[in-house]
Amino acid sequence: MRVEVDTDTCQGHNRCFTIAPELFDVDDFGTAVVIGDGSVPVELEDKARLAEANCPEFAIKIIE
Amino acid sequence: MTDIDDTHTDLYGPVTDWANDFDHAVPEYNERAHEIWAEFQATECPMARSERYSGLWAPFSHEFVHEIAYDTDHFTSQGVVVNTGRPMIEAPVGPAPPITSDPPFHNIARRLLLPPFAPKVIAEWEPEVRRLCNDLLDRMGDITDGESIVDGATQYAQSIPVNVIARMLGFPTEDEELFRGFVHDVLERINEPVEERMQFMGLLDAYLDEQITDHINNPRDDLTTYLMNVEIDGNKLSHEHVRGSIVLLLIAGIDTTWSAIGSSLWHLGTHPDDLSRLANDPEVMTFALEEFLRAYAPVTMARLVKEDHDFHGCPMKANDWVLLPFPAANRDPAQFERATEFVIDRQVNRHGAFGLGIHRCLGSNLARLELKVAIEEFVARFPSFTVDGDVTWSVGQIRGPRRLPLRVLATS
C-alpha cells in the first residue's frame, strides 16, 4: 500500500498528520506531505485508511 | 468601552416564517438550531430566504454549503459577517484579509499568516494553554461536590482563547473584557442600523490604531510586529491591511473557540455516558475532539453574491448575503451516518467545522489545541457534572452558550 497527498487540494486541515504522523508530515504552511515515498508498512494500513477517510478535502489517495 | 448588556435597535424583530423571512440574529435560531436545520433538511429545497439585511439566503444541506464554499466565481468573500450594511473595502482584498479576500490576492495574503499558525508552531502553546485552564479552574474557589455551581461559559470557556490571542498579538491581556465587547459588537449586533455599526467599528479601529502605534514605538516579538514588517513583493502591507488582519485574528480567534468549548461542556453536562467515557478513557479524545467539532461546530460563514444568477432554482441577486452554515452541513443525514447523534468514537468524520476549500480556518490548529486542552483539564478536575439552570445561547453566526450553569458532582 502507498499513500499520496494532492498538495493542490490539501487545505491544511491537519487531520492526517494527527491520525498518522508515521505516514504524513506538514510543511511550514501546514500543507500535508507524505513521508518518504509514501509506502505504508502493513501494521500502519489501518491508520492510512483512517487518514484517508477523515480528510475533509478528499486530498489523500490510497494506492493498493 | 462597549457594554454587553446595552439595549440596541433591532431593525427587524421576531421571525414567524423561517423559510421566507429568515433571521439568524433572533435568539430562537441558535436555541433551536438543530431542530430548524433538520426541518429544512427534510424538505425538497433546504434553502431559506429573507428580505432582511437587504437580501439573505441560507442553505442548510451539505450539498449546497459545499458547492458555495468552493465556488469563488459566483460568490465573493468580501463580506463574511451578515449585517445591515455592505463592506466598504472592495474585493479582492476586503476589509479583513485574508478571510475577506478572493483569488488571486487571497493566496498571497493567506501565505503570510499560515506559518505562525502551522501545526508545529501552535503545538508549542500547549503548556501555556494548560496552565491558563488550570488557573481558571483554581479561581473557581472552594467546590463542594453536589452543591457548587460554576459557569462553564463565563468562568472558563470565554477566558481561554481571548488570553491566548491577546498574547500572540502582543496586546494587554487586561483588556480581555474590551475584546469581548468588540467581538459582541461585530458578530452579534448585526441587525442594527448601519450608522450604529459604523460607530462601534470605529471604536475597534481606533483601539487597534493605538496598539499599532505602541508597536511602532516598542517593537516586540509578536504577530502585530510580524504583520507590520512582513512584505509582499518587497512592499510592506498597508496600514489598512495590517489592521484588517488584526481584526480578523482578534474577532475570529475569540468567540469561535469560546463557543466550541462551551458547547462541548454543555454536551458533556447533558450526556453523562459520554462524560464518563471521556473521564475514564482519555484516549478516546482523538475521536471525541473531532465529534465535538462536527456536532457542535460553532461557525457559520457568509459570502456575497457576485452577480445575479440562479442557484438550484433560487434567484440570487448581486450583493445578496449567503450564509454558509457548516454546522448544519455537519449534521446532514445525506452526508453523515447517524448525523444527529453524537458518536464519541466516530471513526469516519470528514466534517467541515473549519470550513471547506481555500478559506479553511487559519487558526484551526490553535482552536483544536484550545478545545482539546480545555475539555481535558475541565474533565480531569470535574469528572462528573451536570447542566443545572438556564442556559443562554449567542445570537448570529457563531453558536455557543453564553451562560452555562454546571453543578459539580465530583472533584478529582
Q: What CATH first level of chain A would be assigned?
A: Alpha Beta
What is the domain tally of chain B? 1
Count the helices of chain A. How many? 2
Q: Which shape of chain A, going by the Cα principal axes?
A: globular
Based on helices, strands and strand pairing, what is the structural class of chain B?
Answer: alpha+beta
Q: Roughly how many Å apart are the termini of chain B?
A: 39 Å
Q: What is the overall silhouette of chain B?
A: globular
List the topology elements.
The complex is a heterodimer of chains A (64) and B (412).
Chain A: E1 2-5, H1 15-19, E2 24-26, E3 32-34, H2 45-53, E4 60-63
Chain B: H1 27-31, H2 33-41, E1 47-50, E2 56-59, H3 62-70, E3 75-76, H4 105-113, H5 119-123, H6 126-138, E4 149-151, H7 153-157, H8 159-169, H9 176-188, H10 194-217, H11 223-229, E5 231-232, E6 235-236, H12 239-252, H13 255-270, H14 272-280, H15 285-295, E7 301-305, E8 309-311, E9 314-316, E10 321-324, H16 326-329, H17 364-381, E11 384-387, E12 392-393, E13 401-403, E14 405-410
Helix pairs in contact in B: 6-8, 6-17, 13-14, 13-17
